[in-house]
Amino acid sequence: MAQFTHLDDQNQPGMVDISTKSATQRTATAQAIVRVNESVAAAFQDGEIQSKKGPVFHTAVLGGTMAAKKTPDLIPLCHGLHLEDCDFEIQLDGQEIVITCTTVTTGKTGVEMEAMVGASQAALTIYDMCKSMDKGIVIQEVKLLKKTGGKSDFIAS
Predict the structure, then answer these.
(1) Interatomic CA distance for residues 157 and 81, integer angstroms
(2) Could you say which of 10, 42, 51, 132 has the lowest number of CB atoms within 10 Å?
(3) Which long-range contacts (CB under 8 A, 24 or more apart) does 88-96 make?
(4) Which one of 17, 46, 73, 128 is the catalytic residue?
(5) How far apart are CA 137 and CA 36, in angstroms?
(6) pTM assigned to the model
(7) Which residues are 58's β-sheet partners?
């Protein structure tokens, strides 16, 4: 039976001991989907929207990158990592804005949380910058698409 890695034998929370692990290159890709109304989607048809706060997608990339770097400050028990890369792809697909965040490090633990936090924050940034046009924006899902390195690799089906 699978165990929760952040609980000890007495079911008390704690960081996972990674002291005996070897450093390897680790990558993770996460995705967030933001559903907007037709008017917001139409505004993006010509490319980037310039809002009063700046270019929406560019600002989302900055917000997502900043959040990914701060993941251990946001997620309890998360190890601090030196991110070697944090890359975003943001595309409009109908009324959905698809955000993909890929993170890379060489270390003793994975970067899944950093990728998911980055994608989440980019989605929240888009919401913040477009809410004046659409209060009904929905962040539909945040999910891990892929991870490599460490004990096992993962690809979402």
Answers:
(1) 27
(2) 10
(3) 88/60, 88/61, 88/64, 88/118, 88/122, 90/57, 90/60, 90/61, 90/122, 92/41, 92/44, 92/45, 94/41, 95/35, 95/36, 95/37, 95/38, 95/40, 95/41, 96/33, 96/34, 96/35, 96/36, 96/140
(4) 128
(5) 5
(6) 0.90
(7) none
Structural fold of domain 24-155: Alpha-Beta Plaits (3.30.70)
Is residue 17 annotated as part of the catalytic site, yes or no? Answer: no
